[in-house]
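ok so I'm stuck.
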Amino acid sequence: MARVTNPNDFLAHYGVPGMKWGRRKGSANNASPSAMQTHTPFVKDPNKSPPPAKGVTDLSPKHIKRISDAELRNRINRMQMEMQYKQLTEGKSAPDKSKAKVAYENFEKGHTVVKQVMAVAKTAQAIHKFANSDFVKEIADLIKETKK
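replied:
not stuck anymore, here's the structure
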C-alpha cells in the first residue's frame, strides 16, 4: 500500500450517493430553459381515454375510432388469417380420439341397444303372460264352442 506524503496528491469524491458518473446534477438556478423542457409529463385529460399502447389488440368501440383505416384493415386481415390457420391445422393434425373415449362411446351405443332389446323382451313377456292368462283361455274355449 502506498503512503500519501503530500495532501495535494489525495483523490476525493464529493458527489451524491447514487449519482451516475459523468452526469451533472441539475438545479433550477443554473439549468437552461431548453434543458428544463426536454421532458413534458403526460397530463391526463378526463374527457379522453389514453392512447392505446403499441401492440394492443383491444378493439373496443372507443379504441376502434382512434385507429386508422389501414391499421384496422391490417388487424382484420391478421385475425382472418389466424382463424384460417387454426381451421387448417386442426383439420390435419387433430388427434385421434383416445381409447377411453372410443370405449365409452361404444359402451353408450351398446347400452342403447340393450335398452331397446330389453323393451322388446318386456313387451314379449307381457304378451306371453297375457296369452297364458285365464281370460284368454276362457275366450279360446268360447270360440271353440261357437265353432261346434
